[in-house]
Amino acid sequence: MCETGSAPEEARASLPRPAPGAAVDPIALEPVDEVEIVTLVDNVYDALLTGDARTRRAGSGTGAVTAPQFEEGRTFAGMVAEHGFSALVTVRRDGRSTTLLFDTGLSPDAMVTNAGRLGLGLGDVQAVVLSHGHFDHVGGLAGLAGKRGVRSLPMVLHPLVWTRRRLAVPGKEPYELPTLSRRALEGEGFEVVERREPSLLLDGSVLITGEVDRTTEFEHGMPPPHQAWTGSGWEHDPLVADDQALVVHVRGRGLVVLTGCGHAGAVNIVRHARRLTGVDRLHALVGGLHLGGPAFEPVIPPTVAALTELAPDLVVPGHCTGWRAQHALAAALPDAWVQSSSGTSYRLTA
């Protein structure tokens, strides 16, 4: 599935595989005192949304920009919304705070623009984590490289993130998706860390899942038009095997799971996180769940049923979740569901 081809054992490693029982060697994910997730980029920006004790919104008075057409010489631009996702994750433990950047949005400037309008400097970012290689999650790397001016920033990703992919919709001319360049990223100073397996970051307080076990009967991945280059031709790429999530254990509350697109399936991802850590309780699920469009709408009912059974305290579906799934989740989990919006922060404490 990657640009240079792959050995048979690499192909087998990307296939769904059973994951019965608890993990043989559970990961000791250290509980944290608090995690704050700031949605830097999402598909939606609503300046009229209200917050609460754990949710802070970027309101209509955010992001002052020069505008000579106004008496004051300025106006408020608010947040940029685009078909992409990016989140700033700050973990607090034992009096220390550390910040990671999870995905970077679609365009080169939306993420850094929104961070600036929120008054958030990106100079404190300790590492970048990429959920997968699709361009609507990595496009902001260009803006980040130009903004920081700091070399050797670690970047954690799956080795299949470099896969060439295209969409070949019947009756339309196929078009190739932009492919991330390792050489370019390393040239800009990013220290690329490739991992298929789970990774522990920040002294064991953040888990990056690596490849997610596909164990449900209903989350089948991408439809046939989504294809990958094998080295000799294009083939259906249903798995997007580089898809991974970020997991934090908030002490006394449970797991906080952050997804980019959730190509592995929201329920598969949560199951995988619970199995790896041995922590059964799902406290929060935030990010894209990829339930939009005709190919994925049949997956909505079993996904909603499974998440309802897990009874999370917070569900913030964003990006590619789709409006039908949003309505279904809001109806099934009215006390947990929260509307996502660019510029919103969620603070979850022990």
UniProtKB/TrEMBL annotation:
<dbReference type="InterPro" id="IPR052926">
    <property type="entry name" value="Metallo-beta-lactamase_dom"/>
</dbReference>
<dbReference type="Pfam" id="PF00753">
    <property type="entry name" value="Lactamase_B"/>
</dbReference>
<dbReference type="InterPro" id="IPR001279">
    <property type="entry name" value="Metallo-B-lactamas"/>
</dbReference>
<feature type="region of interest" description="Disordered">
    <location>
        <begin position="1"/>
        <end position="22"/>
    </location>
</feature>
<dbReference type="InterPro" id="IPR041712">
    <property type="entry name" value="DHPS-like_MBL-fold"/>
</dbReference>
<dbReference type="InterPro" id="IPR036866">
    <property type="entry name" value="RibonucZ/Hydroxyglut_hydro"/>
</dbReference>
<protein>
    <submittedName>
        <fullName>MBL fold metallo-hydrolase</fullName>
    </submittedName>
</protein>
<feature type="domain" description="Metallo-beta-lactamase">
    <location>
        <begin position="92"/>
        <end position="191"/>
    </location>
</feature>
